[in-house]
Amino acid sequence: MTSDVVLGIDLGTSSVRATLIGPDGCPIATATREYPVDSPHPGYSEQHPDTWWQSTCSAVSAALAAADGPEVCAISFSGQMHGTVLCNANDEPIRPAIIWSDQRSSREVTAFRSVLEPGRLAELTANPLAAGFQLATLLWLRGNEPESLDAARHVFLPKDWLRFRMTGVAATDPSDACSTLMFDTANRSWSETVIEASGIDGEKLPRVAESFELSGTLLPTAAHELGLREGVPVFVGAGDTPATAFGNGVVDPGTVQCTIGSGGQLIAPLGTPKYDAELRTHTFCHVPRDRWYAMAAILSAGLSLRWLRGCMFGTDAPSYAELSAMA
Questions:
Q1: Has residue 309 been placed in a domain?
Q2: What is the pLDDT at residue 301?
Q3: Cystine design at 223: which of 65, 155, 230, 244 (Cβ 3.0–4.6 Å)?
Q4: Predicted local confidence at residue 2, as pLDDT
């Protein structure tokens, strides 16, 4: 049995991936479980957190079996950014998560410009507001489902909810929190000015810790469902885009990364939190404390590929690796 193995969990839009990493930094085993994006109305994009959890448990179990049951010594995360999970006082999800590709809050984005002028919002957050960002979603919930927002004790980003489900500790990190548009990107902390202007209760937001910090330990019930021992240290982790860049060594200015996931991003690291005054791009916190990155993005890259795969092959569609080999 291999010891000193780290479990990495990537909570994506189309699937969750569990990867076991050995002491030498090389992958030992990986397993993926896909799930759909629900669209109950045009422009809506939702996923239920319980689906994330069940898929994560299945993926972790499969990875452990493939690696012959190694001893996991630590867990950390990357995950889809911008989305919104509401939990009640019993720590249960109140409704399906509204994820980054959701467009229902476009009117709220327009209306918020009269509350905080876009240039002022950029001074505070280094970013323009867009539909699907957590701030816009919370404004939509306040106007359309006030009972859901009122019942919420916690407001989470997707990967932060998954960690909360494992540890019972509410936390986020700068690389993910900056994608809410309620975050002071330059100073890596919640923006009291934006939160006050929005009318959102800041007490519902989790504390901010750096990606490398310990968040908590694995609870007994979660450990049983995952097939792991209780008490495993669980670290905060990062948003999927900055985590990918960090893992690829794209950290210093002068390097660039192009990513095709569910969406598509082109990012360039920055040594200072400068932003585009014309608001054509985003500026977010990188994983290291002294780095940021500029990003240009589109909503449908991998999602379009998945749609095309389904149209061509139906329910028995081959994997992307198999399609690549066929090309």
A1: no
A2: 83
A3: 230
A4: 61
| Catalytically annotated residue among 240, 252, 276, 316 | 240
Cα(186)–Cα(272) distance, integer angstroms = 8
Angle, vertex CA 277, rays to CA 272 and CA 283, nearest 5: 45
278: which 2 tokens? 């014309």
- Give me the residue label for tokens 């399609």: 323
- Look up 240 and say whether it is catalytic: yes
Cβ(53)–Cβ(162) below 8 Å: yes
What's the rounded Cα separation, in Å, for the pair 89 and 108? 27
Percent of the chain with pLDDT over 90: 88
Give the integer Cα–Cα distance in Å for 269 and 92: 37
pLDDT in tens, 211-224: 999 999 999 999 99
Question: From CA 131, how far away is CA 108, in angstroms rounded?
Answer: 8
How far apart, in Å, are the Cα atoms of 53 and each of 24, 175, 213? Answer: 29, 22, 23
Host domain of residue 9:
5-243
Domain count for the chain: 1
**Which residue has 């519902």 as its token pair?**
204
Q: 163, 239 in Cβ contact below 8 A? A: no
Backbone φ, ψ for residue 38 (5° rounding): -85, 140
